[in-house]
Every structure is written in structure tokens, then in C-alpha cells.
């Protein structure tokens, strides 16, 4: 119950805060729906008036009918417009909130958990539902009120009409069953639906398009798509057919009850006990009755869906609050490193993984050094640098920055003193200026700063691919946007990492995987020089790479195997000890002899 | 917002309704006919109900006032009850039949749209901004709730309109001009109202404007894992939020303002409509008072006048149907442009089996410019590769190496010059398709079983387990198979139950296996574009140790920056990015002796090892 109240409060607060006036207009639709219910009453007046020759009743009925019709149309229309606008604006407000909460969680661990990403996906897909949540709440209230009104009206006109409720009862049960069957059908077809989305995605994607054409897979994909679309629809069709057969019975039943009740009334009418107007009113109301009864089932289900979405939103809010708590450190990070970074028995396991990615790593990264991190795929290199950037928290152990636990530092402050180029760099589809400039937000519009960063990243030749210079929009789907090659995107990512002028920790994760030999060479020359220049700050440059040619010049080489540090030392020492490092080095060096 | 016109022009809509009818007939002729009959029946029953209720009232009047016998009363009651039950039955049949029709319809629409994307062989077409936009708009629209509403509501709407026509016919029998005035007025008001609603919906769900697209991009960026690390490290979440908000409001605010201005007109139009309907009812009351119209007729006329409202807009269903109609117009136009039949799928040809064997390549004076670029990427490039040779292509980033490979695979048409694979033009000659197998840098991760991920290369021989085994083994993918516990049916995506997600390095081996399988499937040329970028030292060494064995019987082209692997090729060419053509050509030894760009690059990479020293040279 408390949860439900929290959900209702969230919906109402968000909606009213976003657009108070339209929230009020959202009331128009249910109110005007109620007005339409009065139509039968005016008809009764007209008919009774015509029967008894009472003109004023006819006129009154006619005018009231026209007026309530007008109010109904206008109310529905304005309410409709307000609903669309409101759902759009509140949908935006929710989306903004979802994005904010997600992006402001300092850790990235949650984004690597499948169940979290799934929840987030569902939440975003349903933001329209969240946008219309106030309406769904009002509509549910409205059908409730309408049902009571109709029942009272039926009882007041003629208690025999209450029998109609029995006729409508199977429809209530039937509608519930149909909704359940449909839900089951949707669940059954969910996997096929996802496959269909993926396959349809392939048909319109130029990048996938290359491969489909080269391997003559277009017909094959078409066949697969046909198959998966059919599998996707089949359970839903079955559920609908089942529901429809049931509906035939319900509807025929209601028709029979209706005829019976009306026949009974007519007997009374023939005796003069019931007026003709009442007969007409009964006909009109019986039609409305069916709508109200079935509508209430749908509205309540819809409300339940909306509340589920609101529940997901609350889950996100709670999760964000909780995640923030583990980043509550407030100590101002140092402006220069005296001793360096010390890892003390650091272990890390991904949630759900059966073995740790890092186990019991103890390691010194001395201030002012260039450290190379090598190891095979899956050895834990990327995990280690992610921990250093504070993007994960160690499962156990501590990371000490000049003796202070990273967990006690103000995380924003520490990140401002770090910079990195990741292996899976982002392809920001902004202007080239911003794509690089966001590496140091205050200087994002500073053109010379961006040029300098690109030069530092040995990425000057990227300019050749930018027809409008730094103002060029990146990403081919945007108007006037250009696509870049993998190497060019990587150079921009390196430029971004070079934007911050004096980081204490500079990380390069496979920075040259897509780069050509001259660039690779120039880049290493440059940043070893830069690292040397930064020794007075005590800055640490951390390099992760498969290319051993670039490792040699590092002051310290750390070899990771299966999440453990197995070798530490300068190149010469490690080659002499003749273990894994020496092996791997030899394999590559051979290629150049 | 001017391009956001997805409710289309009036003409487009009207011919679109015709297309919709043709589609319905084509996808499920039997069920569509059933639905049509049920719809007509429902409309007829509604009209009959209006008449019956009126006659009931009339009969009742006679029974009460003139004390006539009740026979007539019961006859009309029988008609009323019959109509009521028939209406219910027709509705039930309709909901049954419509579900069938809709399912078939949506399947067909999905297939038709997918075919539009798959049909053009020319990749440039798919990359064309205009084409890509209209394709993605088609795909999005077919999944939109409004489209679904329109489709589902087709019959309901048709019944409403037929009933309205019947109501107009009934009112005609009172005063002939009344229905003309009423219907004219309702239609006019309906145009104003529908115009407003359509504009609203177009703005919201039509082709997205650039600002809207950008706003969505910002919000997606904040949520998707891809950019998560950099967003946090560089602290740009705040900035992205502000941009998202700013962009969203920049298109939303003027839009609502404009929509708000139109509202006055809409309310005015509704006042007119209510006045006209009220006038008609008042006139009816006047006629009734003077005894020109009986009570029976008054009842029927009132019901019929209220029924005329269905000529007006019918809410979401009608807005949805407009979208269905416009969608079909555009889909059919696009399909006609591509030479595809409008309503039915093009033929699916069984892939012809290829005979294996290396083939030669001839590229002569080829110049190629991307649509989005002014400068050509390749200029009068000439390269002749005899069958069975292993060739490596090197060059700086952006020199056009990948472009050259795409041209060889027949994905683009060169501006000038000729490309021949086994003497045939890969762009135009169908018999040439499948001759060139490529591992692209952006290969596809199919969320399908391992068998398909490898077998998709095999072009007709995917049933031969030995071929797949060998391909995976040669691609150093045995480890991947072990991880999947030897299960070739394991789905390679965590999104599916029991599925497994692979690492980047593992995926790369799968992509390589796919290309190797295609050699077994008859490809004569194997192109490897940075095939080991995501692999570690040992895996890379493992693959290249088998390089010669796995490239036997096929012409191989290797594109790589890792010169230690490149040197294993028989012949190496250097692609000069500035000139757009081949600048050096020869074996590793030749090029080293020449002392050109290649020698310089190789020495550069090698020097880092030499400098390293430490290792005894012996």
C-alpha cells in the first residue's frame, strides 16, 4: 500500500510540476465522457414530450442535447489535445530524469549488468505510458464514477434494468481473461520479437548491409525475418482468436439479456406503467453500460501497467540514491602526487561472474612514472584501469592515492585530475570541436585548445577528413555529417584524452589498435616526452597494450595473468627472467627480424 | 517543422485508402471479405435499430393513446431484439476476423519494408541520406501505435461511416435539405479539427526534425553503456542534460505555441457545429409540435441526427488510418523506384552453388568519390592480382584501403575505370556475387546460434559440419567452441534465453571463421581487413602461423597496420592516401630494399623492438 501511494505521488508530482495547466485540462476528457452519459436523459425528454405533446419538454430536451453534445465534443477534443501534449511533456520530464539519474551514478557497474539494462530499456520504452500516467489515473477514477452513476441511473429508472448488469458480468470476466491471454501471448513471443527487431535492424543498416551483400545473405536474412515475424505474431494471434471466440458468447448473451429485459419493460409500457421515453433511455443506457463495464476492466489494467512503470522509476531513484552513497567521499584530491598510487590487496568480481577479474592485486605505481600494463585478452587490464578511474569500486582491498583511500576522495575532483582514452572509445556525434572539446568541458569551445590537443594526439591529419574544419558535424546520419574511419575516430578519442592540461593519471587503453605505424610511433614519442615533462607533478601515465614495441620505454611493466600480477619490473629485467613477458615479446619481435 | 508532414496531402490519403483496400484483399482475401460483410451487417443493424426504436415508440403511442392492439408493438420489438443480437454477433465475428487480417497485414508490411532495405545491391543507395531517412521512417511508422490503431480500427471506422450515410438517408425523408446542410457543416468542421489533430500528431510522431533527433541522441547517450565511461570520467553528464533540455524545448515550444493558436479556430468551428445541430433539433421539435412529424419519426430522426456525427473525426482511429494510408503510398512509391512489386514480395532466388578455386582481379584506372565527399578517395588506381596470390595492402589511416575492398566486393560503382573479378564486373554481374569474401572491421554480431554465425559464410554448404569445423579451427576459434561446451546451436547473445555473450576477441575469431567458411563455399577471393585488431599476441600469432595453409586455393588480400604480419604476404602494395593510388609494389624484401614509405614504416615499428634490446639476437 505504501508503495502504491509512493507511485501515485510520483506520478502526480511529476505531472503537475511539469505542466499544471494541462494537468487540469486532463480532467476535461473524463468529465465530458460523463456528460455524454446524460444524452439518454435528454432523448427521453424529447420522446416523452413528443408523446404527450409537451413542446417545452421537447425544446428543453433538444437544447440540452445540443449543449451536452457540444460540451462533449469540445471537452473531448481539448482534453485529447491536452492529453497528447501532457504525455509528451511529462514523457520528456521522465526521460530527462531517467537519463539524469543513470548518468549521475558515478559507477558504471550497473550499466554492465544485463538485468539493470533490461529494466532501463523497459522503462524508457514505456516513458509514453509514464507521460500519460495522470490520464490513466483519472480515467480509472472516471470509469469507477461512471459505473456507479450508471448503476444508480438504472436502479432509478427501473430496477428491472439492473438485470442488465448480470448480462454484462460475463464480459467483465471475459475481458480479464482476454487481457491475461494477450499478456501470455506477448510473453511467449517476446524472444521472437527481439530477434525480429535485430533482423529488421540489419536490413536497414549500411554497415551490416556490406556483409549481407558480400556473403549473399540478403535472401537468407529475408527468410529468417519472415520466419521470426511469424513466430512473433503466432502466439498473439492464437490469444486473440481464443479471446474473440469467447467474446462471441459474451456478446450474444448480453444481446439476449437486453432483449429479455426490454421485452419485460415493453409489457409494462403497453399497460402504461412505463413511458416510451424510458424505453428509449433504457436502450441508450444499455449500450453505454457495456462500454462502461468493459472499459473499467481495461482502465484498471492500464492503471496497473502505469503503476508498474512508476514502480520501475522508483526502483531507479532508489538505486541511484544507494549508488551515490558508496561515492560519498569528500576529501579534496591532491594537485600533485608525491608518492603515487598504491593498490592494496585489490580484488574485483563482476556481478554474477563465477571467478574474479582481479584477485588480490598489490601494486605500486610510483609518482612520475610511465607504467605499461600487458597481458592476454581477459587478463584484467581494463578492469584495473576502470578501478583506478573510480568507475568501479573494488570488491575488496583499497586503492590509495598518496596514502588516501580513493573511496574517501571527492570522486568528481579525482576524475578532473585524470584523463583517458579507452579501447572502446565513444563516437560522439557532435561537431568535431565538441567531440574533442568535451575532454575538458570548460574549454570545449576553445578552438586553439582543441587544435593543440589533436596535435598532442598526433591526430593533425584528421583535419583532412573534416570538410568544414572543426565545425564539421560527425556521424553520417546527421545533415552534412561525415563518417570517419575507425582510425580517425580513435584519433579524436585520443585528442579528447589530451584536452586536460595537467592530469595526475593519464590512461591509454590500446590507444593504437586502429592506427597506422607512423601515427603510432609519433604518438608514443610524444606522450613519453609529455610524461617526462609532467614528473614534477608526479603524474602517472598508464599504458595498456598488446603491442610490445611500445612497452619497452616504460619505467615499469606490469604483467597480468588471470587477474593476478605475475611480473613487475623494467623491460630489461623481465626479458632476463624469461617468463611470460619475455615469451610474448619474443613472439612479436620475431615478426620484425 | 515543415518537413514533418506524415499525415500527407489530401490526394495522398485518398489514393492511400485505395492501397489499404488492396493490401487487405491481398494479405487475407477470405477474412477481409468476412470482415467487410460483418461491417456492413453492423451498419445495417444500427440503422435498423434507429428505425425500430422509433417504430416502437410510435406503436406504444398507438397502444396507449388509441388503445390499438399490441401486435405491431411486438413485431417492432422483435426487429429491435434481432438487430441487437445480430449487432453483437457481427461485432464478435469482426473482432475475430480483424485479428486475423491484422496479423497477416503486419507480417506483410514488415516483409515489404525489410525487402526495401535488402533489395538494392548498391551500398551507396543504402547510405544515401534521403533513402536512409525514408527507410527508417517507414520502419518506425509501421511499428507506431497510431499505425496499429488505424489498422485495428479500419472496420469500426468503416461501420461508423456507413451508419452515418444511412442516418443521412433517414434524415432525407424528413426534409431533403437538412442532411445536406448538416453533413456539409460537419465535414467542414471535421476538416478544421482533423487538420489540427493531424498537425499535432505529425509534429510529435512525424519525421523527426534535426533538433528532435539530436535531443534523442543526447538522451540515448546518457543511458547507453557505450559512452558511460567517458561521460563520467570527463564529467559531461550535466552538459549533456542541459543540451538535451535546450534542444527539446527549442522544437517543442514553438510547436505548442502554434498548435495553441489554432485552437481558437477549432473551438469556433465546434460552436458552429453545435448551433447547426441544435437548430436542426429545434426545427424537428417545431415540426413535431405542429404535428408534421409523428412521435415515431421524431425518435428516429433524433437518433439519426446524432448519428451524423460519425462524418466528423473519429479520434485516434481515424488519425491512425490516415497514417496507414500515407505509409502505404510512400512504401509503394519507394518499392516502385526499386523495381519491386507494390503488394507482394519479389522472388527469392535459390543461391547458385559456386565452384571453389582462386580467381584473379583486375582494377584499372579506378576513380571513386563518396557521395558525402568532394575529393575522390581513389584516383585512377590500377592493381592487377593474379589468381592465388596473397597480397597485403598497407597505408596510413583513411588512405582508402577499406574503400578499395568494398569496390572489389561490388558494393559501390566506381566513378570511372573498371573492376573485374574473374573477368566479371562485381557491381553488375550477378554471377560474380559471392566471389569476394570479406571480414570487415565492423563485422556483424548475429544474435543467432554459432552455426549460423559461421555458416552464414558458407553460401550453400552450411550443412557440412566438416567445413564449419575446419573454418572455426583455422580462425583460432576452438577456444570459443570450448566456451560454448561444443554446442554449435548456442545462441551468441545474452538477450536470448540460454544465450552467451562473447568478448570482442572471440567475436573477431567468429567473423574470421565466417569468411574462411566462404572459401569452402566457393569464394575465390578472401579479403581480411584488420582481422586481428582485437586479438592478443598469442592468438594473432596462432592465426598467422596458419595463414599460408588457410589461404591455399584462394586469392588473399590482407589489410593491416601490423607490418610483422603483412610481411608474410607474397606481395605488398602501399596505398598512398594523398595521391589515391598505389605508390609501392613488391615483396617485403623488394620494398625494404627500395627504402620507400613501406621500408620507413617497417623500420619504425622494428626499431622499437631493436631499441628494446635486451633480447639476444641469436
Verbal overview:
- The complex is a heterodimer of chains A (about 600) and B (about 625).
- Chain A has 20 helices and 10 strands.
- Chain A has about 600 residues and is an alpha/beta fold.
- In chain A, a hairpin with a 2-residue loop joins β9 and β10.
- The longest helix of chain A has about 55 residues.
- The mean pLDDT of chain A is about 85.
- In chain B, about 60% of the residues lie in helices and about 10% in strands.
- A 6-stranded mixed beta sheet of chain B has the order 5-6-7-3-8-9, sandwiched between helices. In chain B, strands 2-1-4 form a 3-stranded antiparallel beta sheet, with helices on one face.
- In chain B, a hairpin with a 4-residue loop joins β8 and β9.
- The relative contact order of chain B is 0.09.
Mean pLDDT of chain B: 85
Q: How big is the Rg of chain A? A: 35 Å
> How would you sum up the major sheet of chain B?
6 strands, mixed
Count every helix of chain A, treating DSSP H or I runs of 4 or more residues as helices.
20
Number of strands of chain A: 10
Overall structural class of chain A, as computed from helix and strand content, comes to alpha/beta
Q: Give the termini distance of chain A in whole angstroms.
A: 75 Å
Amount of beta strand of chain A: 5-15%
Oligomeric state of the chains present here:
heterodimer
Low-confidence stretches of chain A: none
Give the overall form of chain B. elongated
**Terminal-residue CA separation of chain B:** 72 Å
| Helix percentage range of chain A | 55-70%
Secondary structure elements and pairings:
The complex is a heterodimer of chains A (593) and B (618).
Chain A: H1 2-18, H2 20-25, H3 28-36, H4 39-52, H5 55-104, H6 114-125, H7 127-131, H8 133-157, H9 163-204, H10 206-214, H11 218-270, H12 276-325, E1 340-348, E2 358-366, E3 370-374, H13 381-388, E4 396-401, E5 404-405, H14 411-416, E6 418-421, H15 432-437, H16 447-456, H17 486-497, E7 505-509, H18 517-533, E8 540-544, E9 556-561, E10 564-569, H19 571-577, H20 580-590
Parallel strand pairs in A: 3-8, 3-9, 6-7, 7-8
Antiparallel strand pairs in A: 1-2, 1-4, 4-5, 9-10
Helix pairs in contact in A: 1-12, 3-5, 3-8, 4-5, 4-12, 5-12, 6-12, 8-12, 9-11, 9-12, 11-12, 16-17, 19-20
Chain B: H1 10-27, H2 29-65, H3 71-118, H4 123-127, H5 129-142, H6 145-172, H7 177-205, H8 210-223, H9 228-233, H10 237-289, H11 295-307, H12 315-337, E1 361-368, E2 378-385, E3 390-394, H13 401-408, E4 416-421, E5 436-439, H14 450-455, H15 465-474, H16 478-483, H17 504-520, E6 525-529, H18 537-545, H19 547-550, E7 555-559, H20 563-566, E8 571-576, E9 581-586, H21 588-594, H22 597-612
Parallel strand pairs in B: 3-7, 3-8, 5-6, 6-7
Antiparallel strand pairs in B: 1-2, 1-4, 8-9
Helix pairs in contact in B: 1-2, 1-12, 2-3, 2-6, 2-11, 3-5, 6-7, 6-11, 6-12, 7-10, 8-10, 10-11, 15-17, 21-22
Amino acid at each position: 500500500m505504501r508503495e502504491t501511494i509512493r507511485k501515485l505521488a510520483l506520478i502526480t508530482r511529476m505531472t503537475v510540476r511539469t505542466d499544471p495547466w494541462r494537468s487540469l485540462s486532463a480532467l476535461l476528457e473524463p468529465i465530458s465522457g460523463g456528460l455524454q452519459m446524460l444524452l439518454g436523459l435528454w432523448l427521453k425528454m424529447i420522446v416523452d414530450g413528443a408523446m404527450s405533446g409537451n413542446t417545452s419538454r421537447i425544446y428543453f430536451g433538444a437544447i440540452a442535447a445540443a449543449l451536452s453534445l457540444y460540451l462533449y465534443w469540445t471537452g473531448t477534443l481539448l482534453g485529447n489535445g491536452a492529453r497528447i501534449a501532457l504525455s509528451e511533456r511529462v514523457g520528456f520530464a521522465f526521460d530527462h530524469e531517467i537519463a539524469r539519474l543513470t548518468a549521475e551514478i558515478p559507477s558504471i557497474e550497473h550499466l554492465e549488468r544485463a538485468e539493470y539494462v533490461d529494466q532501463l530499456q523497459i522503462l524508457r520504452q514505456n516513458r509514453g505510458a509514464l507521460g500519460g500516467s495522470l490520464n490513466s489515473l483519472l480515467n480509472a477514477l472516471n470509469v469507477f464514477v461512471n459505473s456507479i452513476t450508471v448503476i444508480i441511473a438504472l436502479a432509478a429508472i427501473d430496477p428491472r434494468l439492473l438485470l442488465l448488469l448480470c448480462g454484462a458480468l460475463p464480459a467483465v470476466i471475459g475481458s480479464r481473461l482476454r487481457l491475461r491471454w494477450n499478456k501470455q501471448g506477448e510473453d511467449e513471443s517476446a524472444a521472437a520479437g527481439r530477434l525480429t527487431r535485430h533482423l529488421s535492424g540489419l536490413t536497414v543498416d549500411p554497415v551490416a548491409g556490406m556483409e549481407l551483400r558480400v556473403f549473399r545473405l540478403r535472401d537468407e536474412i529475408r527468410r529468417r525475418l519472415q520466419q521470426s515475424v511469424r513466430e512473433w505474431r503466432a502466439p498473439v494471434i492464437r490469444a486473440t482468436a481464443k479471446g474473440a471466440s469467447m467474446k462471441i458468447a459474451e456478446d450474444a448473451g448480453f444481446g439476449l439479456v437486453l432483449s429479455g429485459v426490454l421485452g419485460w419493460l415493453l409489457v409494462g409500457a403497453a399497460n402504461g406503467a412505463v413511458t416510451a421515453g424510458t424505453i428509449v433511455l433504457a436502450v441508450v443506457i444499455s449500450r453505454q453500460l457495456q462500454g462502461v463495464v468493459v472499459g473499467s476492466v481495461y482502465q484498471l489494467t492500464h492503471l496497473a501497467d502505469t503503476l508498474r512503470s512508476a514502480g520501475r522509476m522508483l526502483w531507479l531513484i532508489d538505486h541511484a540514491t544507494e549508488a551515490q552513497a558508496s561515492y560519498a567521499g569528500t576529501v579534496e584530491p591532491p594537485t600533485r602526487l608525491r608518492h603515487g598510487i598504491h593498490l592494496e590487496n585489490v580484488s574485483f568480481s563482476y556481478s554474477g561472474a563465477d571467478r574474479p577479474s582481479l584477485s588480490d592485486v598489490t601494486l605500486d605505481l610510483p609518482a612520475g612514472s610511465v607504467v605499461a600494463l600487458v597481458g592476454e585478452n581477459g587478463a584484467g587490464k581494463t578492469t584495473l584501469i576502470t578501478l583506478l578511474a573510480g568507475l568501479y569500486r573494488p570488491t575488496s582491498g583499497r586503492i590509495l592515492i598518496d596514502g588516501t583511500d580513493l573511496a574517501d576522495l571527492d570522486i568528481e575532483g579525482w576524475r578532473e585530475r585524470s584523463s583517458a582514452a579507452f579501447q572502446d572509445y565513444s563516437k560522439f556525434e557532435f561537431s568535431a570541436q565538441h567531440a574533442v572539446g568535451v575532454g575538458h568541458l570548460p574549454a570545449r569551445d576553445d578552438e586553439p585548445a582543441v587544435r593543440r590537443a589533436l596535435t598532442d594526439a598526433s591526430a593533425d591529419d584528421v583535419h583532412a577528413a573534416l570538410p568544414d574544419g572543426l565545425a564539421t558535424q560527425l556521424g553520417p546520419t546527421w545533415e552534412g555529417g561525415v563518417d570517419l574511419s575507425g582510425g580517425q575516430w580513435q584519433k579524436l578519442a585520443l585528442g579528447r584524452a589530451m584536452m586536460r592540461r595537467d592530469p595526475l593519471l593519464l590512461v591509454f587503453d590500446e590507444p593504437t589498435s586502429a592506427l597506422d605505424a607512423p601515427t603510432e610511433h609519433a604518438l608514443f614519442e610524444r606522450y613519453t616526452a609529455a610524461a617526462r615533462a609532467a614528473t614534477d607533478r608526479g603524474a602517472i601515465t598508464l599504458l595498456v597494450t598488446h603491442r610490445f614495441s611500445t612497452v619497452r620505454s616504460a619505467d615499469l611493466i606490469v604483467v597480468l595473468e588471470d587477474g593476478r600480477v605475475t611480473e613487475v619490473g623494467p623491460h630489461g629485467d623481465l626479458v632476463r627472467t624469461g617468463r611470460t613477458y619475455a615469451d610474448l615479446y619474443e613472439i612479436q619481435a620475431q615478426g620484425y627480424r | 517543422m515543415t518537413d514533418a508532414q506524415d499525415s500527407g496531402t489530401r490526394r495522398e490519403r485518398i489514393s492511400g485508402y485505395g492501397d489499404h483496400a488492396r493490401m487487405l484483399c491481398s494479405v487475407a482475401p477470405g477474412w477481409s471479405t468476412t470482415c467487410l460483410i460483418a461491417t456492413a451487417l453492423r451498419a445495417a443493424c444500427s440503422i435498423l435499430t434507429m428505425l425500430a426504436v422509433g417504430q416502437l415508440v410510435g406503436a406504444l403511442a398507438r397502444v396507449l393513446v388509441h388503445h390499438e392492439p399490441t401486435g405491431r408493438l411486438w413485431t417492432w420489438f422483435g426487429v429491435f431484439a434481432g438487430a441487437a443480437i445480430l449487432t453483437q454477433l457481427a461485432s464478435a465475428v469482426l473482432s475475430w476476423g480483424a485479428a486475423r487480417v491484422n496479423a497477416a497485414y503486419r507480417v506483410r508490411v514488415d516483409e515489404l519494408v525489410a525487402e526495401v532495405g535488402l533489395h538494392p545491391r548498391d551500398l551507396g543507395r543504402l547510405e544515401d541520406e534521403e533513402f536512409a531517412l525514408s527507410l527508417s521512417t517507414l520502419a518506425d511508422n509501421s511499428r507506431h501505435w497510431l499505425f496499429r490503431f488505424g489498422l485495428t480500427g479500419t472496420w469500426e471506422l468503416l461501420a461508423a461511416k456507413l451508419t452515418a450515410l444511412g442516418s443521412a438517408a433517414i434524415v432525407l425523408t424528413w426534409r431533403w435539405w437538412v442532411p445536406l446542410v448538416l453533413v456539409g457543416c460537419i465535414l467542414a468542421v471535421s476538416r478544421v479539427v482533423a487538420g489540427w489533430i493531424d498537425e499535432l500528431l505529425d509534429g510529435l510522431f512525424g519525421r523527426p526534425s534535426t533538433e528532435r533527433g539530436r535531443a534523442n541522441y543526447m538522451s540515448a547517450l546518457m543511458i547507453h553503456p557505450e559512452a558511460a565511461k567517458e561521460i563520467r570520467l570527463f564529467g559531461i553528464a550535466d552538459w549533456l542534460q542541459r543540451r538535451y533540455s535546450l534542444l527539446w524545448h527549442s522544437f517543442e515550444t514553438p510547436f505548442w505555441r502554434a498548435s495553441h493558436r489554432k485552437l481558437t479556430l477549432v473551438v469556433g468551428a465546434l460552436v458552429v457545429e453545435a448551433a447547426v445541430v441544435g437548430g436542426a433539433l429545434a426545427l424537428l421539435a417545431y415540426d413535431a409540435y405542429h404535428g408534421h412529424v409523428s412521435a415515431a419519426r421524431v425518435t428516429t430522426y433524433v437518433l439519426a441526427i446524432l448519428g451524423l456525427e460519425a462524418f466528423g473525426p473519429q479520434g485516434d482511429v481515424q488519425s491512425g488510418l490516415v497514417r496507414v494510408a500515407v505509409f502505404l503510398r510512400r512504401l509503394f512509391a519507394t518499392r516502385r523506384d526499386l523495381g519491386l512489386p507494390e503488394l507482394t514480395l519479389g522472388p527469392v532466388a535459390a543461391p547458385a552453388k559456386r565452384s571453389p578455386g582462386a580467381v584473379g582481379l583486375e582494377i584499372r584506372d579506378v576513380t571513386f568519390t563518396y557521395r558525402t565527399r568532394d575529393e575522390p578517395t581513389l584516383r585512377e588506381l590500377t592493381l592487377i592480382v593474379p589468381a592465388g596470390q596473397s597480397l597485403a595492402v598497407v597505408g596510413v589511416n583513411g588512405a582508402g584501403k577499406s574503400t578499395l575492398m568494398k569496390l572489389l566486393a561490388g558494393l559501390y560503382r566506381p566513378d570511372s575505370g573498371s573492376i573485374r573479378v574473374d573477368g566479371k564486373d562485381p557491381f553488375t554481374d550477378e554471377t560474380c556475387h559471392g566471389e569476394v569474401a570479406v571480414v570487415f572491421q565492423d563485422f556483424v554480431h548475429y544474435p543467432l546460434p554459432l552455426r549460423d554465425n559461421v555458416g552464414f559464410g558458407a553460401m550453400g554448404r552450411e550443412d557440412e559440419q566438416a567445413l564449419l569445423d575446419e573454418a572455426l579451427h583455422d580462425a583460432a576459434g576452438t577456444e570459443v567452441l570450448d566456451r560454448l561446451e561444443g554446442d554449435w546451436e548456442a545462441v551468441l547473445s545474452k538477450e536470448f534465453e540460454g544465450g552467451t555473450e562473447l568478448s570482442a576477441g572471440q567475436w573477431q575469431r567468429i567473423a574470421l571463421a565466417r569468411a574462411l567458411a566462404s572459401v569452402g563455399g566457393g569464394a575465390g577471393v578472401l579479403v581480411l581487413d584488420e582481422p586481428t585488431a582485437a586479438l592478443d599476441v598469442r592468438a594473432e600469432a596462432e592465426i598467422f602461423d596458419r595463414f599460408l595453409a588457410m589461404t591455399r586455393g584462394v586469392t588473399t588480400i590482407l589489410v593491416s597496420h601490423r607490418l610483422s604480419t603483412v610481411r608474410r604476404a607474397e606481395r605488398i602494395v602501399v596505398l598512398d592516401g594523398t595521391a589515391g593510388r598505389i605508390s609501392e609494389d613488391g615483396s617485403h624484401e623488394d620494398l625494404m630494399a627500395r627504402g620507400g614509405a613501406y621500408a620507413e614504416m617497417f623500420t619504425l615499428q622494428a626499431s622499437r623492438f631493436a631499441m628494446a634490446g635486451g633480447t639476444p639476437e641469436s
